[in-house]
Amino acid sequence: MNRPLRLGLLSLAVAAAGSLRADDQAAPAPRPDDVATLRADNKQLSDELAAAWKEADRLKADLAVAQAASAKGSDEAADLRRQLEAAKAQAPKAEAAPAPADTDAAAKLADVQDKLAMSLRSFTVVQDENTQLKAALDKANADNASLNQQLEAARAQTAAVQTQAAATSQVAAQVDPLRTELRQSQDEANRLAAENAEFRTRLAVQSTGPGATRPSPTRPGAGAAISAAAAPAAAAAATPPAPRTHVVVEGDTLSKIARKYYGSAARWEDILNANRGVVKDEKSLVVGSTLTIP
Questions:
Q1: What is the pTM of this model?
Q2: Which terminus of the chain is less hemmed in, N or C, by CB atoms within 10 Å?
Q3: What domains does the chain contain, in order, with CATH numbers?
Q4: What residues contact residue 131 under an 8 Å CB cut-off, 6+ apart?
């Protein structure tokens, strides 16, 4: 019969659903793949539940047939009992009849007794089948209830994962503009630092003209002021400009960074050679790492 096989499949489905539920609870954080997995498990549980309900309906139909057969067997047994009682009542009358009549009555009585014994055996078999069908129906109902509970739990977990995924998407949508703004601020700071270094260089070059051997004539009292102004300029000229840095963001490449700072993508090797301790090759940029721009 297919009934034990289907009930075994139901048990395996329940065990698989329990294992899935335990794995979901042990997961550290929801991922987009978890939603698809839970939806697939949800569909599988729904299919198994539908199959279990179909099996339960078939068992109910078998039980109804068995009950009808049991009622029919009871009616036949009662009818045979009545025939036996009638035969026993006619037995004294048959004793006064001739010998052939006694033989016919005895044969009829034996036949009725055989039919009665057969009906009783059939009735016992039908009762046993009826008991087994009831037990199978109870087990199917219990399995259906368990599958319903697991299905509801899976749906609740799916809803929770979808809610967490939506919250994660909202956080990512809020973080991306902040990253863009931070990158723009860093670019602006780097640009201002480059302009400041260039301005200092120009100031140092203009403070002392080329080929000058003696100080230019100045007004009385202006010499000290010029010396005081020239000292910071000379110090600025003597101090090399601070190196530029660049924080790697999503989508950056060495060629793109070189084009940004040098105006030419061909100088990406200069950036790579200056950052050998951070970058192994042109394909191993790490988002968030800081590169020195020579």
A1: 0.32
A2: N
A3: 3-171 (1.10.287), 243-294 (3.10.350.10)
A4: none
